Amino acid sequence: MSGSTTTIDARPVVVIEFGNEIPPRSFDPVLPPELYENRLRIDPLRYPQLAEQVPDLAAQARHWAAEISAAGSPRAVFAYCSAAELATLLVDELPGSGIALIVFDPAVPGPGTPQELLLDLALGMDDTLAPSEVPDITGLPASEALRLASSFLRSLVTRAAPDLDDEIAAELTEGQRAWLGFTLSAAAERSAQPKLGRVVLSTDSEWAEADACSVHRTELNVRDLFGTPAVTPLVAELLSAPAAEEALGEEEPCSRTS
Amino acid sequence: MQSHFVERDATEAVVAAQWSRVLGRPPVSLDTDFFGSGGSSLHAAKLVSALRSALGTRIPLKTLFEASTFGALSARIRNDTPGSGGRLLTLNPSGTGTPLLLVPAASGGVIGLHRFGGDPIDRPVLGLQARGLDPAEGEPCGTTAEIVDDFIGVLEKADAPRSLHLAGYCVGGILAYELAAGLRLRGWDVRSVLLLNTSLYCPPLSVSDAAREKLVSVAAEAGIALPEGEEPDAAAVFKAVSSQGPDPIEADFAEFEAGLRVFGSVGAAVSGYVPAPGDFAVRLFSTDDRDDPSDIERTAHPVTDWPDLGLADYRQYHVPVDHFEMIVHEPTLKAVEDAMKDIDDGRRGQSEPREDSSPYA
């Protein structure tokens, strides 16, 4: 008996997901089942000492590439929101070629984003707080901004929950500081927008077509984009494209699907 | 039948108590998400802090971010800290009033009573677990005297506060009353006994009779039809129950059987029970369906109800909901707290409602 055989791509996929997000977003519900079992998860907020310093994204990408290198070259990297640029740098750092980059609802933090995050974190602990009570970290050097914000958040925890034991308070602010540290690093000045691979958008997001290989606009809100398997077929389609293109030796075409 | 969510084990009781205290409302199902219910990161820190204090274990804050539903969080704690709490659980570690001790009913544990660990109860809340729920502990106690001695041993070993309010739901009220008498004899300060719909119609039952009643009830609640005229088979009921619903806890038939034995032992221990008048404060919170008609029918001995026992300090409160609803009924919880607070403050009778009147208007 003869005929064609189908090669199963056994390479893992990398998912970049923020562990402290409320509500959490995860690619788990949308990954095709065979990929779900073989995924490597990166939580950018677990970068060592991210709560204490602001390393640049390239250094973070090198760290994560080294962390997952034992698993071999992945088939794809998935990211969302402000992890978009980290994901592009990670793909560059990883060995092998033909690694698909798939980004849901990408966002590039601007100079004012760390301040917005600080305000959100502060109001999350004390919704009676006036914005003027939150120190302005915009424009400060990243390490100084992180130090000032950290000190303010710790004082706010003490004020909002005076009975909270120190250990828990430290754990809480460590997570917040790591989030700020990452945002400060992602908001660093850049010469150009990152060029993304395949972008999938919810109805609440926008991304310029010129800044991606393809942009897929869905009719789903953010919750449904991540929370239901409705986009699983699209993910499977996006994953199969690079392999086919690579096999043909063609340059990956850019396209748009609305 | 109860319509509200009922926790399935002691871990869930503790988690539910602190969850409701932090968020102001209890989880409504295993799938209730902490952050989806309005929890912020600060709320998360408060919940984890309270659970650490209650369970005496170090739960990392990230646990709640990784397992944010009530069921997942409880499962993580159950798996990561097996046996935490032992026979004396802490449902709430802090508060301003004299501590409240929850005495188990026939189930042997504090399942169903988690709301007493939340608002508006403003005091530390402890909960006893009956001997024998853990199969490794051997046979359950056989008489009320044995149960009382065993509970006192647990309290003394745990160095529990020696000034307490005691509360028992349903038949647990009888055990609370008897425990109060035993503690008084040993010099403990029993502030009050709170009887939560405790009937004194206690029909004569053997251990096996009471266990069989429980088994039939479990099967009925699970919608399992039992062959008419045949003895219910515990193994078959367990198999059917454990195959239903999400994440069955009782994965071990030995634990299921142990629960039945405890139920049977408590049922048999209170058979024909008649209380002797105590010299401590007694508060009865009573619904209209407190006395089960079948228990009335089967009780052969003359019954003198609580109001007629000649208790030294007795008040009765009418609860305007049914037997199952009362333990999650906010106004009833508030009335229970107010009753304890009045006793703590030495204001007996000053702000209490009239005898047998509703305090909930």
Distance between the termini of chain B: 26 Å
Instruction: Please identify, by name, the CATH architecture of the largest domain in chain B.
Output: 3-Layer(aba) Sandwich
Strand content range of chain B: 5-15%
Low-confidence stretches of chain B: 349-355
Order of helical and strand elements of chain B? HHHHEEEHEHEHHHEHEH
Sheet bearing the most strands of chain A, described? 7 strands, parallel
Task: Determine the CATH topology of the largest domain in chain A.
Answer: Rossmann fold
- The average pLDDT value of chain A, as a whole number, equals 87
CATH topology of the largest domain in chain B: Rossmann fold
Helical proportion of chain A, percent range = 25-40%
What Rg of chain B do the Cα atoms give?
Answer: 20 Å
> In the residues of chain A, how many domains can be counted?
2
Protein name (chain B): Phosphopantetheine-binding protein
InterPro entries (chain B): AB_hydrolase_fold (IPR029058), ACP-like_sf (IPR036736), PKS_PP-bd (IPR020806), PP-bd_ACP (IPR009081), Ppantetheine_attach_site (IPR006162), Thioesterase (IPR001031)
Keywords (chain B): Phosphopantetheine, Phosphoprotein
Region (Disordered) (chain B): 339-361
Would you give an account of this structure?
The complex is a heterodimer of chains A (258) and B (361). Chain A has 258 residues and is α/β, with parallel strands linked by helices. Chain A has 2 domains: 13-108 and 191-248, 3-Layer(aba) Sandwich (Rossmann fold); 113-186, no CATH class. Chain A has helices at residues 33-36, 57-68, 84-93, 113-125, 142-160, 166-186, 222-227, 232-248, and strands at 13-16, 39-42, 76-81, 100-106, 196-201, 212-217, 255-257. Chain A has a 7-stranded parallel β-sheet, sandwiched between helices. In chain A, helix 2 (57-68) crosses helix 3 (84-93) and helix 4 (113-125) packs antiparallel against helix 6. The longest helix of chain A has 21 residues, at 166-186. Chain A is globular. Chain A starts with 12 loop residues before the first strand and ends with a strand. The model of chain A is unreliable at 243-258 (pLDDT under 50). Chain B is of the alpha/beta class. Chain B folds into 3 domains: 1-85, ACP-like (Non-ribosomal Peptide Synthetase Peptidyl Carrier Protein, Chain A); 87-204 and 271-361, Rossmann fold, CATH 3.40.50.1820; 207-269, no CATH class. Chain B has helices at 10-23, 41-55, 62-66, 70-80, 144-157, 172-185, 207-221, 234-242, 253-269, 293-298, 330-344, and strands at 88-92, 100-103, 125-128, 163-169, 189-196, 281-286, 313-318. Chain B has a 7-stranded mixed β-sheet, sandwiched between helices. In chain B, helix 1 (10-23) runs antiparallel to helix 2 (41-55), helix 1 (10-23) crosses helix 4 and helix 5 crosses helix 6 (172-185). The longest helix of chain B has 17 residues, at 253-269. The two termini of chain B are 26 Å apart. Classes of the chains: A alpha/beta (258), B alpha/beta (361). The interface between A and B is medium-sized, with 20 and 20 residues. Chain B: Residues 6-81 form the Carrier domain. Chain B: Pfam families: PP-binding (PF00550), Thioesterase (PF00975). Chain B: InterPro entries: AB_hydrolase_fold, ACP-like_sf, PKS_PP-bd, PP-bd_ACP, Ppantetheine_attach_site, Thioesterase.
